[in-house]
Amino acid sequence: MSVKFNVVARGNPSNKAAAKKFYASVVSTGKLDQNEVAQSAAEMSTLSSGDTAAAVENFLHVITRELAKGNIVQLGDFGSFWIRTESDGKESADDVRGDSITNVLPLFKPGKRFQQALDAIVFEKASKAGE
Prior knowledge:
Layout (H helix, E strand, L loop, with lengths): L1 E9 L10 E6 L7 H9 L6 H20 L4 E2 L4 E9 L13 E10 L1 H8 L2 E4 L6
Parallel strand pairs: 1-6
Antiparallel strand pairs: 1-2, 3-4, 4-5
Helix pairs in contact: 1-2
């Protein structure tokens, strides 16, 4: 199985006069919602799809709650989640307060098994219409 990509031209935002360069851009082939993920997981276990959906919902709630507390959430070979902040720079350390934070971003680092799966992806250029 392969992941398809298109080729897109992008300009340099810091140099509008620079020639555009071409980049690979992954083509999404579909989307699974939370219920579909639960259904798929239920097919691999003895849990019903309803029980699996409840477990997924609880799992997501726990991850969200722990990240909101500032904890790192480690999920074994899958990977780890944590948060990073962006903030306005201040002239002195005493001027930095909670309201200096302008954005909170979730970060994820894949674990060993997940990274191996990512490394094994084969990419295939998507054909253009008419080709």
